[in-house]
Here is the input.
Amino acid sequence: MSELRRDPISGRWVIIAPERGARPRDFTPDPVEDIAPASCPFCEGNERMTPHELFAIRDVGEPDRPGWYVRVVPNKFPALEVEGTVEPREEGLWRAMDGLGAHEVVIESPRHDMDLAFARDEQIMRVIRACENRVEDLRRDRRFRHVFVFRNHRHAAGASVGHPHSQVMAVPVVPEHLRAGLLGASTYFEKHGECIHCRIVADEMAHGQRVIAHNDSFVAICPYASGYAYAATIYPLRHMHDLLLLQPQERADLASILRRLLVGYRTALFNPPYNLVYQIAPVLDAAGNGAEYSRHLSDLFHWHIDITPRLTRTAGFERGTGLYLNPVAPEEAAKTIRGNLP
Amino acid sequence: MSELRRDPISGRWVIIAPERGARPRDFTPDPVEDIAPASCPFCEGNERMTPHELFAIRDVGEPDRPGWYVRVVPNKFPALEVEGTVEPREEGLWRAMDGLGAHEVVIESPRHDMDLAFARDEQIMRVIRACENRVEDLRRDRRFRHVFVFRNHRHAAGASVGHPHSQVMAVPVVPEHLRAGLLGASTYFEKHGECIHCRIVADEMAHGQRVIAHNDSFVAICPYASGYAYAATIYPLRHMHDLLLLQPQERADLASILRRLLVGYRTALFNPPYNLVYQIAPVLDAAGNGAEYSRHLSDLFHWHIDITPRLTRTAGFERGTGLYLNPVAPEEAAKTIRGNLP
Here is the structure.
């Protein structure tokens, strides 16, 4: 099985997943062709090609049969697996643990070509509800420290199947960016007694130049110090530390702003590859680890969605230095996407 | 000019460089063809096509004329420029400063097709000497906090010109990875009174499984918790916090291990695109900022070279979470490259 390893200097965890079977010749630099709907395991009618479904929203039909709107199945090639323990193995500087986790696929439409940008708000709400269900369910396994949702659009962003889908992953560690984000938010909270995300939302709404769109519950902005061209963040306007606090009207507003943003990207940037990640709260593990974050977690964290189009590969030093170069000012990026909203 | 902006939550700096002129249509996902030697500004005989040279190693000839082995010129499209001040501009949460810095190109050969993997050790030593010269010279400008050297190989790794070259960049901030690395090394030093990199080198040499190659002065390993397939680090065996401490015999040993590693990559992985970064010590700025690192800097830091082939784009969530998935166990990676060394 795969293994989680901790970098002894930075403390960053990585997943070493050799059974995903990569050999030197497997790394193809060229985009592969998408599979045809007839042989697509995510298309309606091909339910037998996936593992048994974990969750579905459907009007008619039995599990693993047609008639669904949204369907969730285990990933056939999971990065992490549910067997294993959270006990770390230590040897000098080296620290590892079993590649314990869960990895699921949220199939967002019965139709192969129905990208989220073309979907109706009602359908996007179903997708969001399915993600909420999986997060809630996976959090019950107290071995996990974090459950998150992400979406890769197009091959260049890591999507191996063209059929629209999101993924849900549960991991027994707090991922690096979330850890750093919680630390920064915590430092600010100690000093100012307020949520730094609420402050950012208020400042951006007042300033306006980096706002792409907003409605009664959400705002989409291009972050001030964004490291990627045209990257955007969707924030709930009210302070809400976790996705599972969404009210029905808020879910409708989220579906609406997300669809508008995705159409804006598609038009402004010619259907760009992108990664979308739900940045939501981590959880305590069975041993109570995580209390350093969660003491004030509901006060200092504010969930949001990050979307980063994958347009540039110009700055090769970024991987090595962590110093990112963004060739598009966020104010210009917001203006461009704003001008292409439906 | 460009601008440096600080993320209010993580403290991470980014370069916003809109004058590099990217418009939505400029982002091409496809590799461009390399330019022909006749129109290559880095080829011998085309010296008039570059800005005036800053440094060269040559037997014969005048500056900006043929007869050189290695030639350093300003980058024609710099990410940062030497005019500007280090005074930050603050407005609420937002903090920015001028896009102050330097960005130079080290042309590694007069010949367009003479990749470093094919060069003689003598020539690689000249390239290293040129980099040392530029680092030493740029550090004299006390507005800079860090000067670093990197190399992008092939278009997929960010190289816009096929002619072999490295780049030198000076920046007025300490880049994120270096900051995190210094913090981790510092924490370890406070606790154990030794350099964590020396400990890693000793453990890896004793363990052996992740060692690719070594000689009297250097060792190349696949790091234990590497986030990228086939990534390698070259460490000096003796404790040495900075590149500028290199002795002549060590420079020869570095050239040798670097060439062998690059040939190993080329053979094992079919000439993969890669990024190579010299991780060297930061500097104090004119106001003395950096003392928090440099008090014990010479004790706790240990310079090294990181090389990351760009083979995978499978894990789209990495950008959003910082949780990296490496499909090749570092022990396997080391074995594969080791089996392909010249």
